[in-house]
Design goal:
By secondary structure, the protein is an alpha/beta fold. The chain has one domain: Rossmann fold (3-Layer(aba) Sandwich), CATH 3.40.50.1820. About 35% of the residues lie in helices and about 15% in strands. It has twelve helices and nine strands. Strands 1-2-3-5-4-6-7-8-9 form a nine-stranded mixed sheet, sandwiched between helices. Helix 3 runs parallel beside helix 12 and helix 6 packs across helix 7. The chain is globular, with a radius of gyration of 20 Å.
């Protein structure tokens, strides 16, 4: 009897899972795709109240907004030979040090910096530029947010809330669709893209936006909301990123945990779905599909149960059907959608970056179409 019940449960879960894939997915410019995108902005990530600021200026490798009240500081590594005559593709990566309280514990800092050095080496060997920035320059992450929220206004450091202080989004002034931190970080990626477009040695038509964990969530949002990005890469992004809510199972992070522990990441409207997240109206495979006809890469780790590696990969494979409906190759070798599952736990390792760079050969080394764009092969 127990075995029979388990079989029924498994079949039920599989039916529910494949129901996600049966959602109609016409080309991304179809009204339904726009409706799905608008739904996620309204009910999940929140809306950015401003696009490119009129008062934004570039000072070397820094982006200044509102006279320097917000400064995005860029760490730029160029490959040999990058020049106006031969602009190189760009890997835009959110600096992982963003997620750690300062001062970072020396052993952890040494490890992160060593990985960053490996990323630089690998990018240069491939002929790609690597641009990194700290997302706290735009909006504070948990360790700062939790500190600031307990302080009186007069105790806060200058411009503590970053873009929230400029355009709205501070804890006391949020409405249902006010942008959360993930959306603000994605907006920051777009401002870096604005800077990239001014650099003759960089090819703004071949830019991949990348991130790990919470920064992987932001990379996906940046890719979907800004079509200038040719590739979006999330590494172990989990719930709020690539993992579908309909495939939640014990051991995987829940939406209610995100909105309690990291209450600033998503918009307040997302709380409506906490009690029954498996029945959320639109799920992450539909969100990932909004990258079509460009390129998507989703990486996972086999022991990263909190992020849900099987769900992340399932969502990417289901999303790839959208590319196939456009007569483009979706999931697989030299396709528009790729991913891997690395042995081990929640981390961003040179192995992950190397596999992603292998994937980038297709979008970065292919020839542009007649309209000068990439990604429509």
């Amino acid at each position: 009897m127990v075995l029979k019940k388990n079989i029924v449960l498994i079949v039920g879960l599989l039916i529910g899972a494949f129901a996600v894939a049966d959602v109609a997915e016409p080309p991304r410019r179809d009204a339904m795709q726009q409706e799905i995108k608008e739904w996620f902005l309204e009910n999940y990530y929140g809306r950015a109240p401003v696009g490119r600021p009129a008062d934004m200026e570039f000072n070397g490798n820094e982006i200044w907004i509102a006279g320097g009240k917000v400064k995005i500081r860029l760490d730029v590594t160029l490959p040999p030979g990058a020049a106006k005559e031969k602009p190189c593709p760009v890997l835009l990566v959110a600096d992982r040090r963003s997620c750690f309280p300062t001062p970072i514990e020396p052993k952890k800092l040494k490890k992160v910096l060593a990985v960053h050095d490996e990323f630089r080496r690998m990018a240069k060997e491939r002929g790609y530029a690597l641009v990194m920035w700290n997302v706290n320059d735009v909006a504070p992450d948990c360790w700062l947010y939790d500190r600031y929220i307990k302080m009186k206004p007069e105790e806060l450091p200058p411009n503590a809330w970053g873009v929230f202080g400029l355009y709205g989004g501070e804890p006391d002034g949020r409405k249902g669709d006010t942008w959360g931190t993930i959306r603000a970080w994605a907006w920051g990626h777009s401002r870096v893209m604005d800077w990239i477009e001014t650099r003759p040695e960089l090819d703004a038509k071949r830019v991949a936006v990348c991130g790990h964990s919470r920064l992987g969530k932001a990379a996906l949002v940046a890719g979907v909301t800004d079509e200038r990005f040719l590739v979006a890469y999330s590494n172990d992004s989990g719930v709020g990123g690539a993992h579908p809510h309909r495939l939640w199972k014990p051991g995987v992070c829940k939406l209610s945990f995100v909105n309690t522990r990291h209450l600033h990441w998503l918009c307040l409207n997302s709380r409506k779905f906490e009690a029954d997240e498996r029945n959320i109206p639109h799920d992450m495979d539909e969100f990932l599909a909004l990258m079509a006809p460009r390129y998507l890469y989703v990486a996972s780790a086999s022991e990263d149960w909190w992020a849900g590696p099987d769900g992340e990969q399932f969502a990417a494979e289901m999303a790839s059907r959208t590319w196939e409906r456009m007569n483009l190759k979706g999931w697989g070798y030299r396709g528009h959608v790729g991913g891997h599952v690395r042995p081990g736990g929640h981390d961003f390792l040179p192995y992950d970056f190397e596999r992603f760079l292998d994937f980038c050969k297709t979008p970065f080394e292919s020839k542009p179409n007649a309209d000068g764009k990439y990604g429509r092969q």
